[in-house]
Amino acid sequence: MLTIALSKGKLSESAVEIFRRAGYVKEVDGLAGESRRLVFECRAAGITFLIVRPSDVPTYVEYGGADAGIVGKDVLMEHDADVYEPLDLGIGACRISVAALKGEGVRSRLSSKVCVATKYPKITERFFNQRGVPVEIIKLYGSIELAPVVGLADWIVDVVETGNTLKAHDLVELEVIAHSTARLIVNRASFRLKHRPLRELIERLRVVSKGRKAVCEAGPLPGECINREKAARA
Q1: Looking at the domain covering 94-179, what would its CATH class be?
Q2: Long-range CB pairs of 126-134, under 8 A, 24+ apart, other chains included
Q3: Taking a C-beta distance cutoff of 8 angstroms, is the pair 120, 78 a contact?
Q4: How far apart are CA 225 and CA 216, in angstroms?
Q5: Is there a contact between 71 and 186 (Cβ–Cβ < 8 Å)?
Q6: Which CATH superfamily is domain 2-93+181-233 in?
Q7: Which residues, 6+ apart, have CB-to-CB distance to 224 below 8 Å?
Q8: Sign of CA dihedral 20, 81, 76, 38
Q9: To which H or E segment does residue 84 belong?
Q10: Per-residue pLDDT tens digits for 135-189
Q11: How many CA atoms lie within 13 A of 23 on its CB side?
């Protein structure tokens, strides 16, 4: 059987729907709902689903706890996991942005450190280092928008979907760091040992997913896929 790690939360429902449309699961009740179960066996499809925190999906896949997983590109950028990334599923679209209170976007003293609150310290550090802007990063795990409101930080780096939460706290986007959608990731060893079922999984999800702009190119190992966005950055 294949073991697949899915993120808890909103993304899991969209991911389960893709598996349903691909013919892997018929009954999604419980798997996509509010069940406290963390392991779901779909023996007819030959798949066991694990429900884990989004930030843990790359770890489960990289270290072999799961053969594959579905996780946002934002999480992959932050964790730098050593996994294959064969497919952009085109769901869970959002952007990683720098935001600040209205009127606070321009710094008069760029020589001084800008205090930035975020749950993405690695992405934030890379972004500002590339621009030569010294920053002090405050790691938060939620409610990032509150940081500028209460004076904890000058700016924030966070995921933005509609922008409504920013507007509700009088914040504005200053710059988009990257766009993010959900990706299928695969353990390197599993890709060799379970090549046939994983290739079938990739192709079936490719057919039903919205991320049809993703391309499959030759990689370091036979069958590795690299999407166009990743290749362009390299």
Answers
A1: alpha beta
A2: 127/98, 127/157, 127/177
A3: yes
A4: 5
A5: no
A6: Periplasmic binding protein-like II (3.40.190.10)
A7: 84, 86, 191, 218
A8: positive
A9: strand 84-88
A10: 999 999 989 999 999 999 999 999 999 999 999 999 999 999 999 999 999 999 9
A11: 7
Give the DSSP letter of residue 56.
G
pLDDT digits (tens, 9 = 90+) for 38-70: 888 888 888 999 999 999 999 999 999 999 999
Q: pLDDT (tens digit, 9 = 90+) per residue, 94-112?
A: 999 999 999 876 554 455 7
Domain range summary for the chain, segments of one domain joined by +? 2-93+181-233, 94-179
Burial bucket for residue 152 (CB in 10 Å: 0-12, 13-18, 19+):
middle
Distance CA 181, CA 172 (A): 22
The C-alpha angle 90, 93, 94, rounded to 5 degrees, equals: 155
Q: End-to-end CA distance of the chain, in Å?
A: 34
Q: What letter would DSSP give residue 112?
A: S
| SS3 category, 12 | helix
Task: Give the amino acid at 162.
Answer: T
Structural Rg of the chain based on CA atoms: 19
CB-based contact 50:39 (threshold 8 Å): yes
CA 34 to chain centre: 21
